[in-house]
Recover the amino acids of this structure.
């Protein structure tokens, strides 16, 4: 019954158990683990392991539970870290030489991952909320203080990206180093990164 219900939940496309089609845990491994736990529970209930355990059933069960919880926690943390790759490290490596001369309180970049870049670069950045027109961008570029502009390519205008007018101005007047950032990451980051020419 448990295995049949698990197989049904795994296959369900709506809020599936174990990630369903995305499969962060392989379906076969999940079913084998459930079957193994069910078999061990049956053996313990039947008393087949009583002679081997010699009255230490509670200790063995608790130890096994703690080990299983630790393994599952490590797996969940690893999956969360691997799934949350923002490209901030690669962007920081790319723009670090450009912002190195900026003083800490001066805004030296405009980015979607502002906090992560501020932490890695020890420089101040801003988001895209205040950049609404190409004229505002031109004034910022002419001032020469901001040395890099980073936005999420697929994002709607707002906190994560500028309006289309500003995107066009970025592409026309700056150097696009997106391919270099993607090469550092070894994958497509989904970010557009611009620096002065």
């Amino acid at each position: 019954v448990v295995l049949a219900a698990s197989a049904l939940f795994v296959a369900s496309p709506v809020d599936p158990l174990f990630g369903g089609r995305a499969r962060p845990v392989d379906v076969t491994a999940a079913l084998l683990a459930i079957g193994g736990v069910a078999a061990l529970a049956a053996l313990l209930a039947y008393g087949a392991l009583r002679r081997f355990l010699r009255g230490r059933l509670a200790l063995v069960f608790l130890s096994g539970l703690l080990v299983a919880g630790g393994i599952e926690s490590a797996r969940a943390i690893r999956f969360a870290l691997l799934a949350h790759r923002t490209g901030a490290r690669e962007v920081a490596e790319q723009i670090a030489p450009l912002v190195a001369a900026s003083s800490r309180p001066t805004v030296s970049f405009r980015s979607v991952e502002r906090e992560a870049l501020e932490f890695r670069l020890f420089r101040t950045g801003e988001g895209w909320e205040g950049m609404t027109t190409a004229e505002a961008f031109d004034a910022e570029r002419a001032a020469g203080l901001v040395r890099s502009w980073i936005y999420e390519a697929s994002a709607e205008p707002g906190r994560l990206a500028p309006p289309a007018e500003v995107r066009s101005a970025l592409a026309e007047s700056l150097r696009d180093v997106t391919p270099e950032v993607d090469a550092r990451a070894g994958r497509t980051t989904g970010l557009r990164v611009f620096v002065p020419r």
Remarks:
- The longest strand covers residues 148-152.
